[in-house]
Amino acid sequence: MRNRTLLISLLAVGLSGCLVKGTSRTAGGPPPPPPSGGTTTTTTVVSEPPPAQPASAPQPPPQPPGHQGPPHNHGQARAQEVHDRNDARKAQHDADKAEKKADQAEKKADKMEAKAEKTEAKAEKAEAKGQDKKAEKLEKQADKQEKAADKQDKKADKLDDKADKAQDKADKAKGKK
Q1: 152 closest CA partner among 114, 119, 105, 84
Q2: Per-residue pLDDT reduced to its tens digit, 160-173
Q3: Residue 96: what pLDDT?
Q4: Which of 5, 38, 154, 163 lies most in the core, judged by the most C-beta atoms within 10 Å?
Q5: CA atoms within 13 A on the CB side of 33
Q6: Alpha carbon 148 to chain centroid distance?
Q7: Alpha carbon separation from 9 to 4, 20, 23 (Å, rounded)
Q8: What tens digit of pLDDT does each residue of 91-119 get?
Q9: Using alpha carbons only, what angle is made at residue 155 by residues 121 and 100, rounded to the nearest 5 degrees?
């Protein structure tokens, strides 16, 4: 029973392909019959050899198929673009980080200078009250604070220069894109 069903289904599928296409799939069979339009004319086409080309123009040997020049590896180019973008992003991040550090150092230096000025003001008040020892002690403390503030200013300047260099590097990396 199964064999019969299988045979019928295969036959149906095979015939449906022939009916849909309108032609059979034989390789060496006769040509299809002419359309039935009332008159039948038979035309025979005789193929002639192509005209010979002059031998004076030699043609270069053909290159093997698939060889169009140096191969272009799109994956490597894309990887390089991504690498460049990541480098530019990292350089910009480093520049921002250096700028932030420089700003923090400048703020710290400003705070130290303000603290030194307050200490000097206290020293002047103590001197005005006649507390010479206290005034002398406060002046020494103010001098130390001023030196620390100057040191912090120098550090801030160095960090500012470093931030400028990092920004230049980031701009250069951005320009490569």
Answers
A1: 105
A2: 999 999 999 888 88
A3: 93
A4: 163
A5: 4
A6: 46
A7: 9, 16, 20
A8: 999 999 999 999 999 999 999 999 999 99
A9: 100
